[in-house]
Design goal:
The complex is a heterodimer of chains A (181) and B (122). Helix content of chain A is 74%, strand content 0%. Chain A is built from nine helices and no strands. The radius of gyration of chain A is 18 Å and the shape is globular. Chain A has 181 residues and is mainly α. With 122 residues, chain B is mainly α. Mean pLDDT of chain B is 65; it is low at 76-81 and 94-106. The chains are: A mainly alpha (181), B mainly alpha (122).
């Protein structure tokens, strides 16, 4: 594999990794799971798509990441169900919803400057959006993808992206209005 | 962005807050992301289809044992869940063996199977 490809991939992943982690963190509300999701997405991109043009990496990476997030969410749900079903685990505190037990993401430095509650409230509100709305909102607002790139990353039409994004905005405005004045 | 790529004030503030939040990740998390990136890049050029195939058999066997365990215990509905045991089995069976082999869930499945053979307190 050409050295230039390795360098290009390294630059690309270094550029997206922090934002990708924040996206996964807001969706999963669990730092370790978020790191796992990002690491898996990196690995899959390198192993399966490193030969693709660099312009395709971003939507591919985020599509892989979102699949990993969904996979982790499903597994967590199933794991919780199975553990609840196992007789010797029913009385344990661990049979509660792991999502509810997971810590909320800590606000970043800007949140501290502008008021810690603003950042925390926004991340919490984003984390509670329906998956497709959250995905559309973060890909556009955090990652800065345009509608076409977001559609490619989400595997849907541009019209669907606009709908999801618009609904996400509406819901966030409703929930964050009091923090935003 | 909401209309013709012209972001509102709300969108601008939200985007700035999110980007600063990502830029301000703590050192430990940044370090782990860097390690993850290097680990991924070390796999560049390796065959993506056969690297972990040796894990498929034990992974599949463990999944089969768990499904068998669920079946053996009847078709009771999972307490606290909205779906049935069959729904859960479908989800577990839906996860490809390749994916199972890469996940910590493999340990969980083996643990669940072992506990089925030797329940706690017996």
């Amino acid at each position: 594999m050409a050295e230039s490809t390795a360098q290009a991939l390294n630059s690309f992943l270094a550029d997206v990794e922090r934002r990708a982690f924040r996206m996964a963190q807001m969706a999963l509300r669990h730092d370790e799971d978020a790191l796992d999701a990002v690491q898996d997405a990196m690995l899959q991109l390198v192993r399966r798509y490193s030969g693709r043009p660099g312009t395709e990496w971003r939507p591919l990476f985020y599509r892989i990441l979102e699949n990993r997030i969904r996979d982790l969410q499903r597994r967590r749900t199933v794991r919780g169900r199975v553990l609840a079903w196992v007789p010797w685990h029913r009385d344990s505190d661990e049979d509660s919803d792991p999502v509810e037990r997971a810590p909320d993401p800590a606000p970043g430095p800007v949140a501290e400057l502008e008021g810690r509650e603003i950042g925390a409230a926004m991340q919490l509100a984003i984390g509670h959006l329906p998956a497709r709305q959250r995905e559309a909102f973060l890909l556009r607002s955090l990652e800065g993808l345009d509608v076409a790139q977001t559609a490619a990353a989400m595997g849907c039409s541009e019209g669907s992206v606009k709908t999801h994004y618009s609904r996400a905005l509406q819901r966030l405005r409703e929930q964050l209005g009091e923090f935003w004045t | 962005m909401s209309k013709d790529n012209d972001p509102t004030e709300f969108e601008r503030r939200a985007g700035a807050l999110l980007r600063d939040s990502a830029d301000g990740l703590d050192g430990a998390t940044r370090s782990r992301l860097t390690q993850a990136r290097h680990a991924a890049l070390s796999r560049l050029g390796q065959d993506s289809h056969w690297g972990n195939r040796w894990l498929i058999v034990p992974g599949g066997a463990a999944a089969a044992v768990l499904v068998g365990l669920l079946l053996w215990n009847g078709n009771a509905t999972v307490p606290g869940g909205n779906g049935s045991t069959l729904d859960d089995m479908e989800l577990l069976a839906d996860a490809e063996a390749y994916e199972l082999s890469q996940e910590p869930d493999l340990e969980f499945i083996e643990w669940a199977a072992a506990m089925g053979d030797h329940p706690a307190g017996t």
